[in-house]
Each structure stands twice: as structure tokens, then as C-alpha cells.
Design brief:
Blueprint lengths: L21 H4 L3 H4 L1 H21 L11 H12 L3 H14 L2 H13 L17 H38 L4 E6 L2 E7 H18 L6 E2 L9 H6 L5 H11 L3 E2 L10 H29 L3 E3 L1 H4 L14 H24 L9 H6 L2 H20 L1 E3 L1 H9 L6 H13 L8 H9 L6 H9 L5 H8 L10 H4 L13
Parallel strand pairs: 3-4
Antiparallel strand pairs: 1-2, 5-6
InterPro entries: Fumarase/histidase_N, Fumarate_lyase_CS, Fumarate_lyase_fam, Fumarate_lyase_N, L-Aspartase-like, PurB_bact, PurB_C
Pfam family, one: ASL_C
Protein name: Adenylosuccinate lyase
């Protein structure tokens, strides 16, 4: 009988993010793992205790000393492998993860000057008071400290590439057919600009939090300490954590802000998916050459001549997985039955995979881009083989002259259609046709000087719009 991998120690990863792709996803572990959730809970519990005591909220209780504040803040800071194991042991007894956090903190206060104040830990809180703030801290940290910097670095890579290739002419392909030429840099700049808009949207999202009791009414608070201004205490605590206070909730914070940020990240991922498929296509057309050393290892197991665009294909797949997870999070987290149900508890534990697959895709896109060389000769050959794309220029000049009263400019579109549709036209043939049209000298000479290589309009200059705003969204 085959060995059971489930019995192997250390445990074998079930998901690729914790196995094959661990290195790329690892930065999110400090923010979105179960251990990170418990560390954030410790932050909320200890800061709440400091907030209540230093604010003299509960009558007849003293404020804290500087050493006592340091002791409390050291609890989450010191939460490592031993603390994780201890919390798990407590949770096996409590069968409640947040209650286990409360007991964990109280153990740290035993034998200290704070032991007589241990019952202040978790006072007036429901579990969701701690959880919503913990998730807010985790998600804010993951997005702003890990995902967004990686996303901005990719935009910066694209911006450099766009500027470097701003004047490299390239045949366009609308509907997959040869079309009005552009420049490679301008097409890359379109992606940098699109992604830059998303990069600026994401930091503008609010991260909401609440601490208002079992049904959002401060009922226990008001009964226990009626003299306190509990709304002010709640607001100042949430803001102290660097979050935006939500004044109206049920037992749970409604998670609408999470849906908003996931929608933005998912949209950014769909633009990245478009980028991956376009670059894959340019590679297949020969517009880019791939350096084998940059793409990594064997190109094909049977065809030694091949260098497969694996980084872009990997990015596509991971963006599809990430987008599906982010969409699911956005759709389900905004719904809670009546004042509370626990579906969000399970759902939120999947934020890590959603951002992890996106982060992996960004890593692969950057690695893929870094392994490309522009083949300007291949692009030039395509341009030279498609002189018929100048048909647009010729008929536009003829139509302009026609509306200005120049004779002989009738039916310009139809005349160019007869020449170019379904036919290959070389440079000599196009110049001969232009010369036969009876154009005024200035317009004739301007068109005769034109080629597919130079018929790019303002394409190169348009790349300069990336400097209108910092496309990465950085200050």
C-alpha cells in the first residue's frame, strides 16, 4: 500500500502557495495567516485594556505605568512559535479561539502588577469586536505593505519599458488583423496607465472597524458604566488603531469596505490578465525574444528549440484563481443573517489565498518581463509587409480635400477598399496609387514620404502622459 502523505512530518503542504510557490507568497504569512490573526487579536486586546485604563473609563481603577504599557504591548510582539503552540493548547480546552486569546493574555499578567486588573482583558467585548478590528489590521497591512508595493513595482517596470520603446514602430492588430501602426512603447504605456489608476484607487479605500458590543448597541457598556461616553471611547479606540470608525453595525462590522477593496484588486488583476495575454501574443508573433536563463530551465521537454512563455501563462492562471476568490469574498461578505451568523468567519480565512495567487502572478509577470528582449527587426518586417495599412491615411487626406472643395476626390474609401481589401500592397504599389490620384502637390508629397514605419501619429509622444501622474500611485 502506498504511503499516506498526511502522516509525514513536517506536514506536506496541501496548497501550492504553501508548497511549490512558498517563497513568492511568504510575505503574506505575517499578515494573513492564522498566526497573524491571533497576533492581531492580541494587539486589539492589549490596546483595548490600555485605552480603558489610561482613559479612566472605569471608575476607581488606576492608570497604567510606562512599564505596564510596555508589558502589555510586548505580548503581541513576543508572540512566536511557543506562543502559537500555547494558544493552540488553550483553544483545545476552550473550543473558542478568541476566548483562548483572552486566557493567553491573562496568563501573561499573572505574577505582575497587572494581575489584579486581569479582568479588564476583553471586558465589554464580543468576539466580533476583536475579530473585525484584527482583520482590518491584517488586511490593511497585507495590502499596503506587501501587495500594493509589489503591484507598484510592476507598474514601474512597465513604465521604464514603455519609455525605452516609445519610438519603436509596431504593426497594430485590431480584431487580429493588420491595422494602423503604433509604437511598442505606446501600447505598453496603455497598460501602465490603466494599472496606475487602480494603484491610486486602492489606497483611497477606507478600512472600517467597530467596538460596540453584542448587537452594536453598547448595551453592556451603558449598563456597566453609564457615566462613560461610549461612542467617543469606541471611535477614539478604532482611530487609535489607524482605522475608520463605523458608527452603525449589527454584531458584526458589515465588511462592505472589504468588498470594495477586493473589487479593486480583482479589477487590477483582470487588467494584468489582459497584459499577460497580450505579451504572450507578442512573443508568439516574434516581437519579443525570451532569454532562456531569465525564463528558467528547460523550455520544452521534447522540443529543445522552444522557450515557452511560462511566466505569463502562470500569471494568467493565478490571476483567474485570485479573481474568482476575490469575487466570492466580495459577494458573500456583505451578507449576514439578521444580527449575526458565522459564514464570514470561514470566508475571511481565505483572504490569504486570494491575495497570495495575485501576488504570485505579479511576481511571475515581473520575472517574465525581465526576461524579454525587443525584436525591432521582426516588427519592422511586419510593417514592411503591410503597406495596405496606409489606406486609412490616403482616404483620410482625400476626404479632407473633398470636403474642402478639391475636385477628383470622390469615393475615397471605396477606391482604397478596391485597392487594399483582400490584397497585399507593397511600397511601390502604394506609391504608384498615390501618384495616380491627382492630389495637390503638398498632400501628394506628404503621402509619398509616408511608410508603415512612420505612420504612427503621436504614439511616441503619448507615452509622455505617464509623467502626468506617478503611475505607481506613490507620493
Amino acid at each position: 500500500m502506498a504511503h499516506s502523505f498526511a502522516d509525514i512530518t513536517p506536514p506536506i503542504a496541501l496548497t501550492p502557495l504553501d508548497g511549490r510557490y512558498r517563497a513568492q507568497a511568504a510575505p503574506l504569512v505575517d499578515h494573513l495567516s492564522e498566526a497573524a490573526l491571533n497576533r492581531s487579536r492580541l494587539v486589539v486586546e492589549t490596546e483595548w485594556m490600555i485605552h480603558l485604563l489610561d482613559g479612566e473609563v472605569i471608575p476607581d481603577l488606576r492608570t497604567l505605568t510606562e512599564d505596564e504599557r510596555a508589558l502589555l504591548r510586548a505580548i503581541p510582539e513576543d508572540f512566536g512559535a511557543e506562543g502559537i503552540a500555547e494558544h493552540a493548547e488553550i483553544e483545545r480546552e476552550t473550543v473558542h479561539d478568541v476566548k483562548a486569546i483572552e486566557y493567553y493574555v491573562k496568563r501573561r499578567l499573572a505574577g505582575t502588577s497587572l494581575e489584579p486588573l486581569a479582568e479588564v482583558v476583553h471586558i465589554y467585548c464580543t468576539s466580533e469586536d476583536v475579530n473585525n478590528l484584527s482583520y482590518a489590521l491584517m488586511i490593511k497591512g497585507a495590502v499596503h505593505e506587501v501587495w500594493l508595493p509589489a503591484f507598484e513595482d510592476l507598474i514601474a517596470d512597465l513604465t521604464v519599458l514603455a519609455k525605452d520603446t516609445a519610438e519603436v514602430p509596431m504593426l497594430s492588430h485590431t480584431h487580429g488583423q493588420p491595422a494602423t501602426p503604433t509604437t511598442l512603447g505606446k501600447e505598453i504605456a496603455v497598460f501602465a496607465h490603466r494599472l496606475g489608476r487602480q494603484a491610486r484607487r486602492i489606497p483611497a479605500n477606507q478600512t472600517l472597524g467597530k467596538i460596540n458590543g453584542a448587537t452594536g448597541t453598547y448595551a453592556a457598556h451603558a449598563v456597566a458604566v453609564p457615566s462613560a461616553d461610549w461612542e467617543r471611547i469606541s471611535r477614539t479606540f478604532v482611530e487609535h488603531l489607524g482605522l475608520t470608525w463605523n458608527p452603525l453595525t449589527t454584531q458584526i462590522e458589515s465588511h462592505d469596505w472589504q468588498a470594495e477593496i477586493y473589487a479593486d484588486i480583482a479589477r487590477a488583476g483582470r487588467i494584468l490578465h489582459n497584459l499577460a495575454t497580450d505579451f504572450w501574443t507578442y512573443i508568439s508573433m516574434g516581437y519579443f525574444r525570451q532569454r532562456l536563463s531569465a525564463q528558467g530551465g528547460t523550455g520544452s521537454s521534447t522540443m529543445p528549440h522552444k522557450v515557452n512563455p511560462i511566466r505569463f501563462e502562470n500569471a494568467e492562471a493565478n490571476l483567474e484563481i485570485s479573481g474568482a476568490l476575490l469575487d466570492s469574498l466580495s459577494q458573500t461578505l456583505v451578507t449576514s443573517r439578521l444580527q449575526r451568523d458565522l459564514t464570514d468567519s470561514t470566508t475571511q480565512r481565505n483572504v490569504g489565498p486570494a491575495l497570495g495567487h495575485s501576488l504570485l502572478a505579479i511576481s511571475n509577470l515581473r520575472r517574465g518581463l525581465a526576461g524579454l528582449d525587443v525584436d525591432a527587426d521582426a516588427m519592422a518586417a511586419d510593417l514592411e509587409g503591410n503597406w495596405e495599412v496606409l489606406g486609412e491615411a490616403v482616404q483620410s487626406v482625400m476626404r479632407t480635400l473633398g470636403v474642402q472643395g478639391t475636385t477628383g476626390m470622390d469615393n475615397p474609401y471605396e477606391r482604397l477598399k478596391d485597392l487594399t481589401r483582400g490584397h497585399r500592397v507593397d511600397g511601390e504599389g502604394m506609391r504608384e496609387f498615390i501618384g495616380s490620384l491627382g492630389l495637390p502637390d503638398a498632400e501628394r508629397d506628404r503621402l509619398l514620404a509616408l511608410s508603415p514605419h512612420t505612420y504612427v501619429g503621436y504614439a511616441a509622444a503619448l507615452v509622455g502622459h505617464l509623467d502626468d501622474v506617478d503611475p505607481g500611485g506613490r507620493a
